[in-house]
Amino acid sequence: MKNIKVLGTGCANCKATLKLIEDAVRAKGTEIQLEKIEDIAQILGYGVMFTPGVVIDGKVVHAGGVPSRSAVESWL
Question: What is the CATH number of the domain that holds 67?
């Protein structure tokens, strides 16, 4: 099971990214562990300077702006 973290303080893009991932997971029928990280220190700990960021299994795969649906699907 993949562990996916969405990094961001709660801006509209962060919420949109979280929803996009949830929708893609639901459509694909995949099981994941999804977390929302809002703590600035934790976000910076991943080296993410622009949110939203997406971390999968400890690796940053996206930072800044809402990812495309095709990108999200490729992560799953």
Answer: 3.40.30.10
Q: Is the pTM here over 0.90, yes or no?
A: yes
Is 11 considered catalytic here? Answer: yes
Alpha-carbon distance values, 13 to 1, 4, 10, 29 (Å): 25, 16, 8, 24
Of 11, 12, 27, 49, the active-site residue reads: 11
Residue ranges making up the domain that contains 51 = 2-75
4-15 tens-digit pLDDT: 999 999 899 999
The answer to whether 24 is a known catalytic residue is no
Tens of pLDDT along 32-73?
A: 999 999 999 999 999 999 999 999 999 999 999 999 999 999
